[in-house]
Amino acid sequence: MPMSNYKVYKFLDQIVVHSGSQYSVPNIPWDDFVNRNGLNHFISKNFNDWKSIDEVAFNSNQILAPIGHQELWASGVTYMRSKEARMEESKKSHGDYFYEKVYDADRPELFFKAAAHRVVGSNDIVNIRRDSIWNVPEPELTLFISSEGTIEGYTIGNDMSSRSIEGENPLYLPQAKSYDRSAAIGPCLYVPYSPLSLESKIELIIKRNDAEVFAGAIAINQMKRQLTELVEYLFLECSFAYGCYLMTGTGIIPHDDFTLQPGDEVRISIENIGTLINTVGMKAN
């Protein structure tokens, strides 16, 4: 199946590779399967046991986050909207200058977001912090990068953010960003035969009690940084035995008087990849 685009789904006990109206079920552990230079070529060359869609059980509610032993990292302030929002929320702490400076700096903002056990998939629950009064989702194109530093695929990311905590002091960023169920990725790992078009749009819809309370969209080409630039800085002094994921920043941020509530539904879509759907929850006392 040459020159094809593939969607790789992770289930509890198997991997399912989807291409058009056909599926294949490789008998390879997740980490071994995805972590390779030339993943699209590997799939095209090595899999011939394609089945029609009717021959493979495919329950979307059983899809897991497409992550094994990979780390999840994130980029910040890569869009103008993110810069403006970060500066506004940090004015009272006089931290706004740092966000303005990093937007124009050669070195991007990169931070560790989550270990795999804190990441959820589509149709699962993302949490807001109990000690934060201002919480938002951050819809982001997310890269899968092999241990050799090559971009092998793409997924959708929800970088949950506690704006009240980060705004209080920029040094609180790890607490604002990294906690249980603070990130979602999925629904699949998209492995195209050519790089994802930068004309692709990221779309966010938030619903509350089945009513739309926020919607926004932005094209990936509005990002200030090059994708390869972010990868280069991440790999300068870090190695990743299983490859890694990198969220590339958000250009969609709800207005300042909006905050997520338990029960909200967050839908993030990127052309060709699909839609990541999560319900908002909160850890019990």
Descriptive key words:
2 domains; alpha+beta; five-stranded mixed β-sheet; 18% helix; Fumarylacetoacetate hydrolase, domain 2; 285 residues
Structure description:
The protein is α+β, with helices and mostly antiparallel strands. It folds into 2 domains: 6-62, no CATH class; 71-282, Fumarylacetoacetate hydrolase, domain 2 (Alpha-Beta Complex), CATH 3.90.850.10. The protein has helices spanning 30-34, 39-46, 80-89, 96-104, 163-168, 173-177, 227-234, and strands at 6-10, 15-19, 22-24, 51-52, 71-76, 109-114, 119-120, 124-128, 135-136, 139-145, 151-159, 161-162, 183-191, 201-208, 211-219, 244-247, 265-270, 274-282. α3 packs antiparallel against α4 (96-104). The longest helix has 10 residues, at 80-89. The protein starts with 5 loop residues before the first strand and ends with a strand.
